[in-house]
Write a structure and sequence with these properties.
The chain is mainly β. It is 13% helix and 34% strand. The chain is built from six helices and 18 strands. The strands form three sheets. Strands 1, 2, 3, 4, 5, 6, 7, 10, 11, 13 and 16 form an eleven-stranded mixed sheet that branches. A five-stranded mixed sheet has the order 8-18-17-14-15, with no helix packed on it.
Length: 280
């Protein structure tokens, strides 16, 4: 099953959850977003409840979870990416956080801020927590996965490496597409691969099995020190092929398009635009 969050109403100011069925979205009117479905423990009923239908090609996607309580991201979690960045695999997850203001929906433009000249792509599989978890073992963590979605962990490298703490280069406003939908765990193929393309040219390809720490392992680790709630998001890292590691480095430009795909989950498409900064 795939669930999305759509923008609706005047100027698309409101949101509503929807179940994806082929080329249609079945509106789940009782829920403002997918996070609300998970918080209400309504995942099973969402499989069958009926509602108004909308054509998917006319839908406006919001971030699949619009206001997650936590957005945690993991650095250096694919072996190939560890190698290309000239580092050693960390013995524990290298964690940093994003805020909800950084999120955008599928089809919305990644904003290039005028303060950065080194904006990089990082295609990622993100796991969405499905129930409250604290000190979960691996089995409990796996059972607590609500589903998976896609993220571009857009990175402003010149800000990221101003210090040893990466956060300032990772959570710029309107920089992080999350979507287009959440697919339940049964949709993720056993041999799933993640690919990223920029303007139709493949720049990243990696097997999900190349992760140093699995999604369940990340949930277990994080839940050791903080309670995870339904709708929390954990981005599981990026494979090799980022622009910053190329020689010479390659960064995003306005007008480009990024496509991220994971086998069984779907495709996330985003264009790139300069941020419109108000004048004095």
């Amino acid at each position: 099953m795939r669930l999305a969050t759509l923008r609706t109403g005047p100027q698309h100011q409101r949101t509503v959850a929807a179940r994806i069925e082929g080329d249609e979205a079945v509106i789940l009117e009782a829920f403002a977003d997918v996070g609300a479905v998970l918080a209400a423990e309504a995942l099973q009923s969402a499989r069958s409840v009926d509602g108004p239908r909308a054509k998917l090609d006319q839908a406006h996607f919001a971030p699949v979870v619009t206001r997650p309580g936590k957005i945690l991201c993991v650095g250096m979690n694919y072996r190939a990416h560890v190698v290309e960045m000239g580092r050693a695999a960390p013995p524990h997850p290298a964690l940093f956080a994003k805020w909800k203001e950084s999120l955008i929906g599928a089809g919305e433009a990644i904003q290039l801020p005028p303060e950065s000249r080194q904006v990089d792509w990082e295609g990622e599989l993100a796991v969405i927590v499905g129930k409250r978890l604290r000190r979960a073992d691996l089995l409990e963590a796996a059972e607590g996965i609500g589903g998976y979605t896609l993220m571009c962990d857009t990175s402003m490298r010149d800000w990221q490496y101003r210090s040893s703490q990466w956060m300032q280069g990772k959570t710029w406003e309107k920089s992080t597409p999350l979507g287009p939908w959440m697919a339940t765990p049964d949709e993720l193929a056993d041999d799933a691969e993640l690919t990223t393309a920029v303007d139709g040219q493949e720049v990243q390809r990696g097997r999900i099995a190349d992760q140093v720490i699995s999604p369940a392992g990340l949930i277990s680790y994080v839940s050791t020190f903080i309670t995870l709630e339904p709708g929390d998001v954990i981005a599981t890292g990026t494979p090799g092929g980022v622009g910053h590691a190329r020689r010479p480095p390659v960064y995003l430009k306005p007008g480009q398009e990024i496509e991220i795909e994971v086998t069984g989950i779907g495709r996330l498409s985003s264009n790139v635009a300069n941020e419109a900064v108000p004048g004095p």
